[in-house]
């Protein structure tokens, strides 16, 4: 089960939590990552996988004013991305533009397109709609959900609507449904809430506590995956929010992040605080025909869903990202600032 | 500073802080004599100290500061004083407000009560009048009632006399219509009266009825001994006779004689058939088939009876006995009627019966085991401690092993019997038993899962446990299940396998291509994985509780505005309490492991890292000297260290489980720390808490190096997330820890 270390490494200077696939870059496989250092000057790295696929090249190195807690690349413009940052006491979020490089590395100034200033609480994340061009943006803080309309050319972002999830819910993150521009999921302390952006009302919820991370399956509607502190990974069908379709054991400690593969709907990647990244193959019963019989005959063919476990990390892994250009490649980021890019191709061909 | 324009809720919070600090037990504890000890470290907070010397403070300030700073200080202080003033005013105002409202309430209560008294008096008066009236009614009606009662009594008496006089006629009528039951009832009813007055007034009546009764008794006796009557009527007759105090002994003896005779008749019956049909060929086809049908009917009836019998709890000897009786009958009949193929027919029927017997035996065994397990459950729920986990484990262990051994013994009796029927069935029984065990352990595994509540996908077809199922299994039960699984894998299965090999080998009735039905390897595998799963589940359940505790601890306070640490935070107590509870449960169930000092025997890479001189030196130093240089050291040590294996496999020992729980919790602690940003005091608080945890936690774990590493990691991470990471001075740290220790000692002086 131990994955052979075929990974390509890249080191950041400081500790880091977040890494994002640059989806809009169709010519290269690139990732964006930002550091998390309270006292040093933080950096955003634009990393590109060399054409041979055996080296990680730093394409751009930009200084960022504060430590970065969340980073997301714009899915339709490779030069735009969002960050959530903290000054130690207060939180903020901003949209940035990478300046034209013309082949030089020494242009460290990021251009701030706009700041998302309406927040009062701790901002948790900024979401882009994953499936294409959309002038909307979602940001989530501890209590409130904001819908922004963003105009990059005019460099303004306006609050279109906002709704409070309630004082005690303590939102901690979320995901935007790639199949439905108006549906978003937000994780709170005791449940996952589903919101309709047109009415800004709650439509549904999964009553389950301690969820850390959530990801929609980009290939199958209604299917989503959650990661939990102690009890691993669950796959849900939104039409049956009471009981998960499948459970995966997760990690030896907390499961911090999950990501569905952009092409293979059964492949799931998870990162944990036990310093490992696990690759799972969900059972095919995640189809629409999920019924009781799939449960009944499952004991006879109980195959281990764990395809591979990458344990070559020194610290907790908080960031993972599939490449959407080459969907058999993923990047992972451990807290000590090490980026490792791995390919799962040899495992897939075996299947 | 901008104290003037703080928002209102900030002010309120500040006020609360002030109040809480005022009421806290020993405010001088945190910074007892900083002013006198070091002139350098004078901060604003010292004003709050009890030993504050204003003159000295002024002198110091004037000497040290230039005009600008003094002015600034002045402004700051003015602002603060103003602030305190408003706080004070607000508090007074609020107190006054509350006082006024309390007075109002009391006034209102007073007026309400005054009105009530008159009402009560009125009520009392009315009740009195009602009572006197009811007494009046009672007395006026008393006389009439007496009279009515007297009349009624006379009438009853008359009716009885009438009945006695009518009795002989009535009995005669009963004899005619054969309603003996009624007759007996009448007679016994009248008996006491006859006994009292039979010699005087009712003499004639008595004689007449006795005569009638003699006839009845005779009739009944006749009924009892006549074969033509149905069994039911005969039984009725016997009961009636008994009611009439008829001498039962002689009756019984006669009846038994009669029964023996009829039994002989029955046996003869079969022989009669043979006698009657000396040459069965003589019989017509029709008659023969009728006979066959009849005999098969008899056999089926027999086996149906057995099935009924099996449903009750019987042991194999009883089953054998019954089978033997049937078999002799069958053989007898077979002699006469070999066309009926009765032996084959009964063989088939016996197969079914045996199968059922085996199945019911196993289901009963499963039930017993689950009973012994759920008993813990129920008892624990009722809060009874005496039924400890240990006894539950022992009981269920015994239920498993003893139960299966008993079952095997039972089956062996069946197999070793030389009854022809069973000899033919032997391979089948062997297969059945093997299969039975295989299925039984599968079912047991499912049942365990259900009990643990860990898997909601277990299908609901195990109807018999649904009543006992509870949504949330408690942790102790899961631990019992884990250890029981190990016991089954390591002790029960080998023993059973041995037993099966000794006396149940060579089944093969269902063909060898399937291999033997009982595959101990597979069952062992199932239970090994089940045991591991339960152990993990247990660890998870325990850590989850502690995680929740830690989460509350770390998400509630505002760490950036944390106050200077005064004492070890109480979450440490809760944490240790949870660990103690875990340890207590674990001690009951799991064996004690060899206490290994992993620092010396761990595998290659990690070994070198742990025994680096820096670390050893640090460990050997007294804790008081440690704090200051610790940060640097841990950073350095980390550089030289290879990756430490935190998440090793859990083993079935007390220490391993507790250590795993501790490790997971400390890791969680580290992760929570990483999510926060601390000011200096917040960091110092963490430092203090962790330092305090160090000793008690290390006492209960087996791998101290890893725990040290994790605790250091927490401090390092806190310092990384701290805006101003200056650790507490070692003496202060030490004093705070000593104070905490003293406090714990005071609270429970019994435990040293």
From TrEMBL, chain A:
Q: Does the keyword S-adenosyl-L-methionine apply?
A: no
Alphabetically ordered keywords of this record:
Repeat, WD repeat
The protein's name: EIPR1-like beta-propeller domain-containing protein
Q: Native species of this protein? A: Carya illinoinensis
Per the UniProt record, which residue ranges are transmembrane? none
Which ranges does the UniProt record give for the WD repeats? 248-280
Output the GO biological process annotations, alphabetical, semicolon-separated.
protein ubiquitination
Domain (EIPR1-like beta-propeller): residue spans on this chain? 5-280
From TrEMBL, chain B:
Report biased composition (Polar residues) as residue ranges: 602-612
Main localization of the protein described in the UniProt heading: Golgi
Keywords, sorted A to Z: Coiled coil, Golgi apparatus, Lipid transport, Protein transport, Transport
| Localization per Swiss-Prot or TrEMBL | Golgi apparatus, trans-Golgi network
**Region Disordered: start and end of each range?**
17-50, 595-625
Q: Which residues form a coiled coil?
A: 67-133
Task: Report any Pfam family annotated for this entry.
Answer: VPS51_Exo84_N
Biased-composition ranges, Low complexity, are 20-41
One GO biological process this protein is involved in is: Golgi organization
Name a single GO cellular component.
Answer: membrane
* Keyword Coiled coil listed: yes
The protein's assembly and partners: Component of the Golgi-associated retrograde protein (GARP) complex.
Family, according to the entry, reads as follows: Belongs to the VPS51 family.
Purpose:
Acts as component of the GARP complex that is involved in retrograde transport from early and late endosomes to the trans-Golgi network (TGN).
The name this protein carries in UniProt is Vacuolar protein sorting-associated protein 51 homolog
State the organism of origin.
Carya illinoinensis
């Amino acid at each position: 089960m131990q994955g052979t270390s075929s990974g390509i490494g890249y080191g950041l200077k400081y500790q880091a939590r977040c890494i994002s696939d640059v989806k809009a870059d169709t010519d290269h496989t690139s990732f964006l990552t930002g550091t998390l250092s309270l006292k040093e000057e933080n950096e955003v790295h634009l990393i590109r996988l060399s054409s041979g696929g055996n080296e990680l090249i730093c394409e751009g190195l930009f200084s960022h004013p504060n430590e970065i807690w969340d980073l997301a690349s714009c899915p339709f413009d490779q030069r735009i991305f969002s960050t959530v940052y903290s000054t130690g006491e207060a939180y903020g979020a901003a949209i940035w533009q990478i300046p034209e490089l013309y082949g030089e590395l020494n242009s460290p100034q990021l251009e701030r397109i706009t700041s998302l200033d309406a927040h009062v609480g701790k901002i948790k994340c900024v979401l882009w709609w994953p499936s294409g061009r959309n002038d909307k943006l979602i940001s989530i803080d501890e209590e409130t959900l904001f819908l922004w309309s963003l105009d990059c050319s005019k460099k303004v972002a306006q609050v279109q609507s906002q709704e409070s999830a309630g004082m005690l819910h303590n939102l901690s993150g979320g995901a935007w449904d790639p199949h439905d521009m108006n549906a978003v999921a937000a994780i709170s302390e005791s449940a996952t809430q589903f919101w309709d952006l047109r009415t800004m009302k709650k439509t549904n919820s999964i009553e389950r506590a301690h969820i850390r991370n959530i990801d929609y399956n980009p290939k199958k509607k209604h299917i989503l995956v959650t990661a939990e502190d102690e009890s691993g990974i669950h796959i849900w069908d939104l039409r049956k929010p009471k009981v998960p379709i499948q459970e995966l054991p997760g990690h030896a400690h907390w499961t911090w992040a999950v990501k569905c593969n952009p092409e293979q709907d059964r492949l799931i990647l998870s990162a944990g605080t036990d310093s490992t990244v696990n690759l799972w193959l969900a059972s095919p019963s995640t189809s629409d025909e999920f019924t009781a019989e799939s449960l009944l005959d499952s004991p006879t063919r109980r195959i281990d869903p764990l395809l591979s476990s990458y344990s070559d990390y020194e610290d907790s892994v908080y960031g993972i990202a599939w490449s959407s250009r080459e969907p058999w490649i993923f990047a992972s980021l451990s807290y000590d600032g090490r980026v490792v890019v791995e390919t799962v191709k040899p495992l897939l061909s075996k299947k | 500073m901008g104290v003037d324009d703080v928002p209102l809720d900030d002010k309120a919070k500040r006020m609360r802080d002030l109040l809480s600090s005022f009421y806290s037990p020993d405010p001088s504890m945190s910074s007892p004599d900083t002013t006198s000890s070091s002139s350098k470290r004078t901060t604003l907070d010292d004003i709050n100290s009890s030993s504050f010397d204003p003159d000295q403070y002024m002198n110091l300030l004037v000497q040290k500061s230039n005009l600008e700073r003094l002015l600034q200080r002045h402004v700051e202080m003015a602002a603060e004083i103003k602030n305190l003033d408003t706080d004070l005013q607000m508090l007074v105002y609020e107190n006054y407000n509350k006082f006024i409202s309390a007075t109002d309430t009391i006034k209102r209560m007073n007026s309400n009560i005054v009105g009530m008294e008159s009402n009560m008096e009125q009520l009392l008066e009315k009740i009195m009048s009602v009572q006197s009236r009811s007494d009046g009614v009672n007395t006026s009606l008393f006389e009439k009632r007496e009279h009515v009662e007297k009349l009624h009594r006379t009438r009853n008496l008359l009716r009885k006399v009438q009945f006695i006089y009518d009795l002989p006629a009535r009995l005669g009528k009963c004899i005619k219509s054969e309603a003996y039951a009624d007759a007996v009832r009448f007679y016994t009813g009248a008996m006491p009266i006859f006994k009292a007055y039979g010699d005087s007034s009712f003499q004639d009546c008595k004689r007449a009825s006795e005569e009638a009764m003699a006839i009845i008794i005779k009739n009944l006796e006749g009924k009892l001994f006549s074969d033509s009557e149905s069994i039911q009527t005969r039984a009725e007759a016997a009961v009636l006779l008994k009611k009439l105090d008829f001498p039962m002994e002689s009756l019984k003896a006669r009846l038994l004689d009669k029964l023996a005779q009829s039994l002989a008749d029955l046996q003869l019956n079969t022989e009669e058939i043979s006698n009657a049909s000396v040459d069965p060929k003589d019989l017509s086809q029709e008659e023969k088939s009728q006979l066959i049908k009849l005999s098969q009917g008899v056999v089926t009836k027999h086996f149906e009876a057995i099935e009924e019998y099996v449903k009750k709890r019987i042991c194999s000897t009883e089953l054998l006995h019954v089978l033997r009786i049937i078999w002799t009958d069958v053989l007898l009949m077979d002699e006469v009627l070999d066309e009926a193929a009765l032996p084959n027919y009964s063989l088939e029927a016996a197969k079914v019966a045996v199968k059922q017997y085996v199945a019911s035996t196993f289901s009963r065994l499963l039930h017993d085991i689950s009973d012994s397990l759920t008993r813990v459950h129920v008892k624990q729920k009722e809060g009874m401690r005496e039924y400890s986990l240990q006894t539950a484990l022992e009981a269920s262990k015994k239920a498993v092993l003893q139960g299966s051994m008993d079952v095997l013994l039972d089956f062996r009796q069946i197999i070793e019997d030389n009854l022809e029927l069973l000899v033919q069935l032997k391979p089948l029984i062997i297969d059945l038993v093997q299969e039975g065990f295989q299925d039984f352990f599968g079912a047991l595994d499912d049942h365990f899962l259900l009990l643990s509540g860990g898997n909601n996908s277990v299908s609901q077809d195990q109807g018999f446990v649904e009543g006992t199922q509870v949504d949330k299994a408690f942790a102790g039960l899961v631990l019992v299940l884990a250890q029981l699984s190990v016991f089954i894998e390591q002790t029960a299965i080998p023993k059973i396998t041995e037993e099966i090999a000794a006396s149940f080998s060579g089944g093969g009735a269902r063909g060898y291509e399937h291999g033997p039905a009982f595959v101990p390897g597979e069952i062992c595998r199932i239970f090994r994985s089940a045991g591991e799963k339960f152990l993990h589940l247990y660890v998870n359940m325990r850590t989850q509780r502690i995680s929740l505790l830690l989460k509350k601890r770390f998400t509630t306070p505002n760490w950036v505005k944390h106050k200077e640490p005064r004492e070890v935070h109480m979450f440490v107590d809760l944490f240790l309490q949870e660990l103690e509870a875990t340890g207590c449960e674990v001690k009951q169930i799991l064996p004690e492991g060899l206490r290994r000092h992993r620092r010396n025997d761990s595998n290659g890479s990690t070994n070198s890292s742990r025994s680096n001189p820096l670390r050893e030196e640090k460990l050997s130093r007294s804790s008081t000297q440690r704090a200051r240089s610790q940060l640097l050291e841990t950073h350095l040590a980390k550089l030289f260290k290879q990756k430490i294996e935190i998440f090793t496999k859990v083993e079935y020992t007390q220490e391993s489980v507790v250590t795993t729980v501790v490790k997971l919790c400390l890791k969680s602690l580290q992760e929570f720390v990483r999510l926060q940003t601390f000011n200096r005091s917040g960091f110092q608080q963490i430092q203090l808490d962790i330092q305090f945890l160090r000793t008690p936690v290390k006492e209960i774990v087996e791998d101290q190096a890893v725990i040290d590493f994790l605790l250091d990691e927490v401090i390092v991470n806190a310092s990384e997330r701290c805006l101003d990471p200056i650790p507490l001075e070692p003496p202060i740290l030490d004093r705070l820890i000593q104070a905490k220790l003293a406090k714990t000692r005071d609270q429970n002086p019994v435990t040293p």
